Amino acid sequence: ALSSAASDVYKRQIMKNSLIILLCFAAGVLCSYWGIIPECDDSLSLYILYVMMFLVGIGLGSDLTALSAPIKKYKFQILLIPLSTIVGTIAACCLFSLFCPVPLRETVAIGCGFGYYSLSAILLNELAGADIGTIALICNLSRELLTLLTIPLLARYCGKLAPITAAGATSIDTTLPLISATLGEKYVIFAIFHGIIVDISVPVLIWLLYL
Question: Are 180 and 97 in contact (CB under 8 A)?
């Protein structure tokens, strides 16, 4: 009962945080549209990107033990989990691009955010323009929210690893407690390793697409 109550509290907190993020985004759009905030130098997003990459490095550096431990225990078979997420997402984006007005490269780049909406939005804002950056923010935030809402259903009908792959980069942070509560503690190490690898792949894949 305590575990269920804690899970409910956590889900409410996540939804609250996500709502705050959406409201901040909407407020920024409206303030810019109405001219309340003056236009910023385009180089500002580049400096923000530098800060984001520095913070990503700090986060990964603090989890190096979590990265190496599952490899030692499960060998390289564990790489199949993040690899399936990456390949599956890219394949789905290629298929979706057939029905989408956004060009193939941009569609794949947006999908390669893997739920990491803050980093992918800034990267694509710099590399592909503000329109694509905005779409990346909305799409990757939606992936995180949909995963949070459907983790129990995914685990029940699609297998134990489905919530981890659906979570993408967020399996190491925002969706991890709910993944643990739904799947059990033995899947936590898979979720952490998966999240680290997918996190690393976000800037690498997006930059490769714009070489």
Answer: no
Report the distance separating Cα 199 and Cα 157, nearest Å.
Answer: 26
Contacts of 161 (CB under 8 A, 6+ apart): 81, 187, 190
Count of CB atoms situated within 10 Å of the CB of 101: 6
Q: Answer yes or no: are the C-beta atoms of 192 and 204 closer than 8 Å.
A: no
- Quote the CA–CA distance of 92 and 160 in Å, as a whole number: 21
| Residues 144/173, Cβ–Cβ less than 8 Å | no
For residue 9, the surrounding DSSP H or E stretch is helix 2-33
Type of residue numbered 38: P
Q: Smallest Cα–Cα separation from 148: which of 170, 118, 169?
A: 170
Question: b/e for 136-158, b at 16 or more Cβ within 10 A?
Answer: bbebbbebbbebbeebeebbeee
Residues 59, 66 contacting (CB under 8 angstroms):
no
pLDDT in tens, 68-103: 666 677 777 888 999 999 999 999 999 999 998 999
Spatial distance between the Cα atoms of 180 and 29, rounded to a whole number of angstroms: 36
Alpha-carbon span 121 to 91, nearest angstrom: 21
Q: Is the dihedral of CA 139, 145, 147, 149 positive or negative?
A: negative
Output the pLDDT for position 103.
93
